[in-house]
Amino acid sequence: ETTRAGLRMRAAFLITLFCGHAASLQLVPWTVRPAACPRASAAPPLMQFNEEAREAMRQEMQVQAEAAQEVAKAQIAAQWVTLEAALPATEPRDAPVLTLYRDANGWCPFCERVWLQLEQKGLPYEEVLISLKDKPAWYLEMVPTGLVPAVKIESSGEVLWESADIMRRIEADFSSDAAPPLLPAADSAERARAEEMMEGSAALGKAGFQVAMSARNESLGEPERAALRASFEAALRHLDAQIAAGGGPFMLGADFSLVDCTYAPLLERWAVQLPLTMGFDLRPPQPDATPRWPALEGWFVSMAALPSYATRVRGDTYSWSAAVGTFQRMF
């Protein structure tokens, strides 16, 4: 009973505190409900505004939001000014002579050939990335094959596809003192040698693809896999001998050429991916190891020091390693 009395006293105190009418309150048994709080009954219902008041509030909130947006825009603009001031000065670029359409992932070796050629020649160009999984309708209308790469010549609007045709057209139409040719003079012995090596890239590519797929082809026996590997190794020895015959370090000799553009995409991928997929080392696994193909290793080293390739076009080791799983699911 004492406890109940104490509780009634506390309840009375709390009601008095919030309602302010202690004199009208009496301690009553819990079975009797006390009178309603006068302030509570007298207060208007919450959030009961007429239409005019609600519209005024809405307009005020909109004005405040717009003002906040303007402040944010001004802050962003000021930040851009600060960032632009911190950027190093760049030389103005000439108007693009063509537009290159290439794959968005940077996986296509044929796109890389043209891309490297443009970078090495220093030609101004626009670049449009095409999703291979969802090619735009306008691209399919422009390029009948739907494949990449493609280029559109700025002066004529002509569209070209097939990497070999594109590269030869670029050499024919856009070589100058400012954009040195990447092929030897026509009808020269060096030109014939360049043509032979570029033609041979298809055979090397086929041999490399076959040996890479053989590692996962359960229908092949060990003798068939060994024969494909031997064929690939023979093609690499032939390429190594061709580089050595030209004096290196590049494919034709001392100068970078269109032959290097042709081989670079295949070789850079194989150097990363073949050790992972089949334990095949195209380059020495350790820095101090003797290269199996010394002229080819010299080519890798020289390409890594070529700015147009190393800083712009070449894929990184992580990306080529991560792409292995995707390629295996595709093929």
TrEMBL record:
InterPro entries: Glutathione-S-Trfase_C-like (IPR010987), Glutathione-S-Trfase_C_sf (IPR036282), Glutathione_S-Trfase (IPR040079), Glutathione_S-Trfase_N (IPR004045), GST_Omega/HSP26 (IPR050983), Thioredoxin-like_sf (IPR036249)
Domain GST N-terminal: 96-178
UniProt KW keywords: Signal
GO cellular component terms, semicolon-separated: cytoplasm
Signal sequence segment: 1-24
Entry keyword annotation includes Ion transport: no
Superkingdom classification of source: Eukaryota
Listed Gene3D superfamilies: 1.20.1050.10, Glutaredoxin
Domain GST C-terminal: 187-327
UniProt name for this protein: Glutathione transferase
Organism annotation: Phaeocystis antarctica
